[in-house]
Each structure stands twice: as structure tokens, then as C-alpha cells.
Specification:
This protein is an alpha/beta fold and 567 residues long. The chain is built from 26 helices and 15 strands. The longest helix is centred in the last third of the chain and has 22 residues. The structure holds iron/sulfur cluster (SF4).
Length: 567
């Protein structure tokens, strides 16, 4: 496997580290990327304040223990289990042995969800971890904040630092979720919801005709190294169980699945053969493996099917289409709806969060915001209220294909119906004709809906609608969505997001190319492009790039250079 960061300049600029924070009962090691800022761009005020040590700039990091793709020597072993110690504090958890595997589950009659503890006012290590992690770009970058906001900096820091108590309150109210199955001890916990950074999800998974275990684990690592906050394993082909096991054991981020896919595999591809008992057994098996959240299309009901007849594209969600087919063949109500309480019991036994699926999301611009879509959303809201009684953590999935002028209605209606529970949208794609560029078409919609408060954006790759994404497509999709999420965070007023852009501006004005690459969302690509378009420059890690123009305008017409000369 190739190293993710090959360039010697980037290796010397960006370092993976863990910041040690003393919590209530444990020391927490919060992952960060640390950028060594060049002396030349550091403002004089900072130099005076920190004369000995060159200040570094800290970035939120999702890459877990991975620094380069070369580190995956044996995916059977897995990564360190950082939550194992934390879980020993929970009296409600029991450990059982099943087929040579150690499984954690709630003791009979007990609950173990983050929401259960939050409602009781108990701050779990996961809540503490999320609070420290969300605040890391503020607590570690104080010197930069003081420089940028001067006398207002104290107020900004005070408002932006998130406390474990606040996280606990939001989890109790269902406004933030921490997907963290007790059987996924390798997880570095993260939160999804209001007041937090906008998160992104990357989908991976094989299909019946492509890919295998090693490729899918590699894609997961690739996705988290590019910045994915969660990964959904949407495998539908052979070896589903072993692919998922390998992904979970090696994943520092929450893993989501759509269990109906495996159920359909077990039912030999025929929805008619699916039964509640088969579905229930798959839920338990995946929960015991450590899946952190399930997408369940329980809001799609029999009575919604006639509404779909009016559509151009019908049902485009795979899970939705399977459930619809089952209802038609059995002439019965959706079994995930009728068995919802039993599903919630299972979820609360292992602390699997639920992402209530949008099986009726519009699959083309013509179908956007139609009756079928909102009829399902109403049921999603009813299901969330029922899940609350079981202390299950809930988020709601959203569309789909929506034109720009109809996007904001979606989040307003969702907030209203679903009590501001986290919204998790696929894009939305804003035009149907961007085939090959749907990552861009959907990122436009994602940025708009993200700025308005959507908690997590599900990425779309350039291969959407045409094929299974490979590793490069995953990278393209993740980085595109990092742009949407970051732009949303600036619009939401997160000071940490704004600060990074200000540092980039400083690096541009000072022609500090290495800083520009290191601060970019895709350092490798921006450096590679610079090198390709400036062939006379050699990068060897020792020599600095000190050119004060680029080939875009050339030395005589470089506006940045000219305006400096005029100063
Ligand atoms: S040459 Fe043009 S694009 Fe390049 S740094 Fe100067 S102003 Fe910017």
C-alpha cells in the first residue's frame, strides 16, 4: 500500500498526536493533527508572547492510530481498545462468551445507552471525551484566538469550549447522539448534533460483483485518514459478516449499517423470504459485533405506497425498496414498524443508535418535497418518540434529490417534527444531470442544508448513480464533503472553523506555500498540483519553497506580490 502522505514537506509539517486531558476518572488522549507553522507568517504579537516555542496549530482529527496506509500490517489483530477500561465502570453491563467471542450486553432489565445515563445526569467517559474533542481546536489554539479576536478572545473562548455537563444535557434531550456500541471498544467517541462541528459520513462496502475484505478495510482507513467522522458499511455481496468484523475491529470511528441488506442476502435475494425473526437475529448479531448505528426504514408504511405511484423515480432507497416489496408481497404493514418496540429493546441492550431511514427520499428533482416524503417524516417523528421510552439514541435521515429553492423547507420541517434531533442528509443532490460530478452537485445542497443546521452529511462520490466507488472516489467524496462541512461550520459561526481560514489567508499573503498545503483540506493534492504547475521547483523536504508568485498569473502579474510592492 502507498503511504497517504508521501511528500517530505508535508511529513515535516503535519504530525499526528494525542493531547492528554485529565478527566473525572480517566486520562483521555484526544487525537489531533499538529501543524508546524512557518516562522515567517507568525504575527509579531504571537512571537512576543511565545518567544521560545514556535506556536503550532491544532486540528480535529479522525484518523485514529493511522498515520499512513502502510500501517495496516494485519487487519485480523485490530487497533487498541481504548474504551475497554471505561466500560468497567458500568454496573449495568455484563460480559458473556459466545462462540469463542467476548460480548458485552446489558444485564436483564437494565439499559446501557448514553441516553439512559444522560437522563440520569451521569456523565460517561464518552460524553467527557466528546466534550474535550469538540473543544480541542479552541483549547489548544488559544494563542491564535487571542491574536485574531484581541480583547474579545476571552468571551469567544468561554462560549466555544464545550463542557461534559452540556453534552450530557443535550444527549438527555435527544439533540446530540454519541454512537458508541459497548461492543466497539476500539472507538474514539464522537458526537453528532446541534452545537457541534458538522460531521460527514463515508459509505463503503462491497457489492455482489466487486471487492473483498482487505479492500474494504483499506477503504475505511482511507476514509478516516481523509476526514470521515463515521463510516457506513453497505456491503451487499459475499462475506458480509467477515468484512464487517474486520472493519469494526480496525475502525476508530462509529460504524453504521443497513441491516436489511444482510437480511436480504440470507433470504437469497428474495424479499418475500424475509421474516421478522430473521431480521431480529441479524440485528442482534450485528449489535454483538459492535455496529454503532443502524439505518432502519421503519417510517415507510403500507399506506404510503399509493403516494409513490405519482412519482417519476419511485423508490430509490435500497432499504426502502426491499421493505416496499415485502409489504406488497405479504400484504402486511412494514414489520420494522410493527416490531419497533422489540427493535428498541435490542438497540438499548447494546447501545446501538438508530438512524431512522428515509426509504421514500426523492430520487429526482421532480419528486422533491412530495407528499410521500413528508408522510414518512411524520412517522419518523412518531418512532423517535417511542424510541425515547427505551432510551435509544436517534437521528433522522433526510433527502435525496432536492432543488436549491426547496432545501431549507426540509430542515425546518424536520426540526419542527423531530424536536431538533440530529438530521443526517444524503447530499442533497441539486440537479439530476451531473452524472460523474454528483459529489459536486450534492455538496452544493449539503453546504446549504449543513449551514442551516444539519448535523451530519452523508457523502456522495463521483461514481454515484454509475458504479461502486474505489479508493480514489472515496477520497474525492470525503474531501468534497469536508469542504461542505467546514463551510457550514463557518456559516454557523464556529470560531475554530473561521480561524483556520484566517491562517490560510495569512499563509497566502506571505507566500508561505508549505503552510498553505498543510492548512488545506487535502494537503497532498494541493502540493501535487503546485509541483506539477511549477516544474522548476524541487521538493526535497530540506529546501523551502520560497517563490513569491505562482504560474496562475506569473511573476509580473501576481496581484499579491504587486500589492506588497505598493505597500
Ligand atoms: S500569481 Fe496570482 S494566483 Fe498565484 S499567488 Fe500571485 S495572485 Fe495568487
Amino acid at each position: 500500500m502507498n503511504n497517504f502522505i508521501k511528500s517530505s514537506i508535508l511529513k515535516s509539517k503535519i504530525r499526528k498526536e494525542y493531547v492528554n486531558i485529565k478527566g473525572k476518572d480517566f486520562h483521555f488522549f484526544i487525537p489531533v493533527k499538529k501543524i508546524r507553522i512557518n516562522e515567517s507568517i507568525i504575527p509579531d504579537e504571537i512571537k512576543t508572547k511565545s518567544p521560545i516555542k514556535t506556536p503550532e496549530y491544532y486540528i480535529y482529527d479522525t484518523a485514529g492510530p493511522y498515520e499512513s496506509m502502510g500501517e495496516l500490517s494485519d487487519f485480523q489483530i485490530g487497533i487498541p481498545k481504548i474504551r475497554e477500561e471505561w466500560m468497567k465502570l458500568r454496573e449495568q453491563v455484563q460480559i458473556i462468551q459466545k462462540e469463542n467471542k467476548t460480548i458485552r450486553k446489558a444485564k436483564h432489565g437494565e439499559r446501557v445507552t448514553q441516553r439512559y445515563y444522560a437522563k440520569k445526569g451521569i456523565i460517561t467517559p464518552e460524553m467527557e471525551y466528546v466534550a474535550y474533542r469538540e473543544s480541542i481546536e479552541i483549547t489548544q489554539n488559544k494563542i491564535w484566538i487571542e491574536w485574531l479576536w484581541k480583547e474579545k478572545s476571552e468571551e469567544i473562548i468561554e462560549k466555544a469550549v464545550i463542557s461534559p455537563e452540556w453534552i450530557c444535557k443535550q444527549v438527555a434531550e435527544g439533540k446530540i447522539i454519541i454512537p458508541a456500541n459497548i461492543n466497539h471498544p476500539e472507538l474514539e467517541p464522537m458526537g453528532i448534533g446541534q452545537g457541534l462541528r458538522t460531521k460527514i459520513n463515508a459509505n463503503i462496502g462491497n457489492s455482489a460483483i466487486r471487492s473483498g475484505i482487505k479492500e474494504e478495510v483499506e477503504k475505511m482507513i482511507w476514509a478516516v485518514m481523509c476526514g470521515a467522522d463515521t463510516v457506513m458499511d453497505l456491503s451487499t455481496g459475499e462475506e458480509i459478516e467477515s468484512i464487517r468484523e474486520a472493519i469494526i475491529r480496525n475502525s476508530p470511528v462509529p460504524i453504521g449499517t443497513v441491516p436489511i441488506y444482510e437480511v436480504l442476502e440470507k433470504a437469497e435475494g428474495n424479499p418475500e423470504n424475509i421474516s421478522w425473526e430473521l431480521y431480529r437475529d441479524i440485528l442482534i448479531q450485528q449489535a454483538e459485533q459492535g455496529v454503532d448505528y443502524f439505518t432502519i426504514h421503519a417510517g415507510l408504511l403500507e399506506e404510503h405506497l399509493p403516494l409513490v405511484e405519482k412519482r417519476l423515480a419511485g423508490i430509490v432507497s435500497r432499504g426502502g425498496a426491499i421493505i416496499a416489496q415485502w409489504m406488497k408481497e405479504h400484504k402486511q404493514q412494514n414489520f420494522t414498524y410493527t416490531h419497533w418496540d422489540e427493535i428498541c429493546e435490542i438497540l438499548s441492550t447494546y447501545d446501538v443508535a438508530v438512524s431512522i431511514g428515509d426509504g421514500l427520499r426523492p430520487g429526482c428533482i421532480y419528486d422533491a418535497n412530495d407528499e410521500a416524503q413528508f408522510a414518512e417524516l411524520k412517522i419518523q417523528s412518531e418512532l423517535a418518540r417511542r424510541a425515547d421510552k427505551f432510551d435509544v439514541q436517534v437521528m433522522h435521515e433526510g433527502p435525496g434529490h432536492i432543488p436549491m429553492n426547496k432545501i431549507l423547507d426540509n430542515i425546518e420541517i424536520q426540526k419542527d417534527l423531530c424536536n431538533s434531533a440530529p438530521f443526517y442528509t444524503l447530499g442533497p443532490v441539486v440537479t439530476d444531470i451531473a452524472t460523474g460530478y454528483d459529489h459536486i452537485s450534492s455538496a452544493i445542497g449539503a453546504t446549504l442544508i449543513g449551514s442551516a443546521g444539519t448535523a451530519m452529511l452523508c457523502y456522495v462520490t463521483p461514481k454515484e448513480h454509475i458504479g461502486l466507488p474505489d479508493r480514489e472516489d472515496v477520497r474525492e467524496g470525503v474531501i468534497t464533503y469536508k469542504i461542505s462541512a467546514h463551510a457550514s461550520d463557518i456559516a454557523k459561526g464556529l470560531p475554530s472553523a473561521f480561524l483556520r481560514d484566517c491562517l490560510m489567508a495569512l499563509a497566502r499573503v506571505k507566500f508561505s506555500w508549505e503552510d498553505q498545503f498543510a492548512l488545506a483540506l487535502d494537503p497532498e493534492k494541493s502540493l501535487k498540483m503546485f509541483m506539477e504547475s511549477n516544474p522548476c521547483i524541487k521538493e526535497n523536504g530540506e529546501n523551502k519553497i520560497n517563490q513569491n508568485y505562482c504560474t496562475m498569473c506569473g511573476p509580473k502579474f501576481c496581484a499579491m506580490k504587486l500589492s506588497k510592492t505598493n505597500e
